[in-house]
Design brief:
Strand 3 and strand 4 form a beta hairpin. The N terminus is likely disordered. With 299 residues, the protein is an alpha+beta fold. The protein folds into two domains: 160 residues, Regulatory protein AraC (Jelly Rolls), CATH 2.60.120; 111 residues, Homeodomain-like (Arc Repressor Mutant, subunit A, Orthogonal Bundle). The strands form two sheets. It has a five-stranded antiparallel beta sheet. It has a three-stranded antiparallel beta sheet with strand order 4-3-6, with helices on one face. The protein contains eleven helices and eight strands.
């Protein structure tokens, strides 16, 4: 998987800049019971947290290095700058409630949470951030979403609505506090299980020189099979996924450290700083240094 063999013009953007722009203006966003037919999002990330409650629908969701089935009455928690992707199937509408918010939103209301670290919900491994609503876990969560939707339709983003959203998070924290357990074995097909293993391997080794030959040898799969099933399951090529992973990790380092661009390029697996800067600009519309300065001004 040579870097130079990837045509970056064919790769979908990984940063949802529209969403990030809206979050800068409005630290809490709520969209209730959105309905659509078959849907496929690009692999992407946000500069805020995301809660997706699926009321109905079928498909898969990729969270970091895991793949999970999409099912009704299920909550999915997405961390800041976490790569994720959704593919839904036909046959029934995909209905979901989506809540996005920034870390600053929670910090501004921290005194009302009784000292609870609500962001802890998003720090768990992906398998512990997929929560099925039952009578014992998250009871009435869908109803709480509908109450929040009703308030959002009747009012602007007032303090009362923000408090209702905070209460929703606190309810999850209380119900799940001390009860976190690994999700039951997901009902993935064999190709989906193989793709999940490929993604896990990339998650561990993205900063190294990765070739499809190496993947085939390590995972005991043929090169053709790896290329075929990865695109079949995820809707994108293995090469584009690896590149997106590296760029997303570079963004994390640009925001969290003072490392030079050269150091970050090497850290995430780019052998050419010029190529890294070119790809980064293609994805984000600005150079790595401008991205760092722009993000600092937005805080």
């Amino acid at each position: 998987m040579s870097q130079d063999s990837i045509d970056i013009r064919t790769i979908l953007p990984i940063t949802d800049e529209r969403q990030n722009h809206l979050l800068r203006r409005q630290p809490l966003m709520f969209r209730g019971r959105m309905k659509s037919g078959p849907l496929e999002t690009p692999l992407h990330s946000h500069n805020g947290y995301e809660m997706i409650y699926v009321h109905a629908g079928r498909g898969i969701i990729m969270l970091k290095d895991r793949i999970f089935p999409i099912a009704g009455d299920t909550l999915y928690l997405v961390d800041v700058l976490e790569l994720h992707k959704i593919r839904t199937e036909g046959g029934e509408p995909y209905v979901r409630t989506v809540i996005n918010f920034t870390p600053e939103f929670l910090r501004s209301w921290s005194k009302l949470s009784g000292g609870a670290d609500l962001l802890e919900l998003f720090r768990h491994p992906p398998a512990r951030r997929v929560l099925k609503e039952t009578s014992r876990t998250l009871p009435g969560f869908a109803a709480l979403c509908d109450v929040l939707r009703d308030r959002s339709e009747r009012h602007a983003m007032t303090s009362g609505l923000q408090l209702a959203a905070l209460n929703l998070l606190y309810e999850i924290y209380e119900y799940m506090g001390g009860r976190w357990s690994e999700s039951e074995k997901t009902s993935l097909s064999l190709p989906e299980q193989h793709v999940e293993n490929i993604i896990k391997y990339i998650e561990l080794h993205y900063h190294e020189e990765l070739t499809i030959e190496r993947l085939a040898k390590e995972l005991f799969l043929s090169k053709y099979y790896i290329s075929h099933i990865f695109q079949q399951v995820t809707g994108q090529t293995l090469q584009s996924f690896l590149l997106q992973k590296r760029i997303n990790e570079a963004k994390r380092l640009l925001l969290a450290t003072n490392y030079s661009v050269l150091h970050i390029a090497n850290q995430v697996g780019f052998t050419s700083p010029a190529y890294f800067s070119n790809v980064f600009k293609q994805y984000n519309g600005m150079s790595p240094l401008k991205f760092r300065k722009h993000s600092a001004r937005s805080e």
